[in-house]
Write a structure and sequence with these properties.
Layout (H helix, E strand, L loop, with lengths): L9 E3 L6 E4 L6 E7 L2 H6 L1 H17 L4 E10 L6 H21 L3 E7 L3 E2 L2 E2 L3 E10 L16 E5 L10 H7 L11 H16 L5 E4 L4 H10 L8 E3 L8 H6 L6 E5 L4 H11 L3 E7 L3 E4 L3 E4 H9 L1 H9 L2
Parallel strand pairs: 4-5, 11-14
Antiparallel strand pairs: 1-2, 2-3, 3-8, 4-8, 6-7, 9-12, 9-13, 10-12, 11-13, 14-15
């Protein structure tokens, strides 16, 4: 409910991977995001800490901005419990590792302990707030598809990784398995490729894949504020199970869209940075189709997404 148009400097409103605020009197802008997946940190604190930083940096980079610095809010249970201190130590090690690999300093933060109810600790939740610099706010990207007939491509590789996923939690009610693996060198390559492509002015959209995986990210990309846009997608799944292909949360992935005439240039930029690149479909129509597994009107998906909180409140009796 906060007034996000204070001082009329907002360039990218809430609803994309990062918000962007212009710096008056210059072409520059500040991109900002907040991220954490506490389920990952519960299952593997070190990897979860790394992913919290990587996802925040990815959200900044797909906007076209360069990550500058981060602040953290480290929320844990009682430090008197050995397992909680083990979580705390390993999360910090994961954050440190990711920051060193990406060259992002931690400039502030706080720690909140004793977050428990009836002796049960909250999941370890190292929330990362990150800011980045956009040299020219006119060269920016949001997560939403813009025009019909554009090419959709996937930067990154989809693996068989369902551990710790939203799919396991929502569909099967399980917080199990190992969270997706992350290679910070590959992560950085994806960031560098996206930033260059956005700044060159050829990307119409860029959206990181995180909670929910490929299917959710594609659906979110269809929810353009200027009118819903469908997509027809065919991803090379190899031997992946359909649920892993659609809802696995492999890291270092980004969905991008651009005009057909710019395909060779986008591919050149990705190859230059060593970022895996695959054309997976085209925008257009009113239906989201993925590999013959999903074929649903975007309007229906959007209605389910937009009304979820209202339905939850209604069903809970609050």
């Amino acid at each position: 409910q906060y007034d996000h148009m204070v001082r009329t400097d907002t360039v990218i409103l809430p609803g994309s991977d990062s918000a962007v605020i212009r710096i008056k009197g210059t072409k520059k802008g500040l991109a900002m995001t907040v991220d954490c997946n506490s389920r990952y940190c519960y299952l593997d604190p070190f990897t979860g800490g790394m992913i919290a930083v990587a996802e925040a940096a990815r959200n900044i980079s797909v906007t076209g901005a360069t990550p500058l610095a981060l602040t953290d809010c480290l929320n844990f249970g009682s430090p008197e419990r050995p397992e909680v201190m083990w979580q705390f130590e390993n999360v910090i090690k994961g954050i440190r590792e990711a920051c060193l690999k990406l060259g992002i300093p931690v400039i502030s933060g706080n720690v909140s302990f004793y977050n428990e109810t009836s002796g049960t600790s909250v999941y370890p939740t190292p929330t990362i707030g990150m800011v980045g610099l956009l040299d020219d706010v006119t060269r920016r990207a949001t997560q939403h598809f813009k025009d019909e007939g554009d090419i959709i491509a996937l930067v990154g590789i989809t693996k068989d990784e369902l551990g710790g996923s939203e799919y396991l939690k929502i569909v099967h009610n399980m917080d199990r398995g190992m969270p997706p693996s992350i290679d910070m060198d590959i992560e950085k390559k994806a960031h560098d490729a996206c930033r260059e492509a956005v700044r060159s002015g050829i990307l119409k959209s860029a959206h990181d894949l995180s909670e929910g995986g490929l299917a959710i990210a594609l659906a979110e990309s269809c929810f353009s504020p200027n009118g819903l846009i469908g997509a027809v997608v065919e991803v090379k799944g190899g031997t992946l199970r359909p649920d892993s292909l659609l809802f696995g949360e492999s890291q270092s992935r980004v969905i991008i869209s651009f005009a057909a005439k710019d395909l060779k240039e986008v591919e050149r930029i990705c190859n230059k940075h060593g970022a895996p690149f695959e054309v997976i479909g085209k925008t257009g129509g009113s239906v989201l189709k993925i590999n013959g597994l999903i074929e649903t009107p975007v309007e229906k998906i959007f209605t389910a997404w937009k009304g979820s909180f209202k339905r939850y409140i209604g069903s809970s009796g609050l």
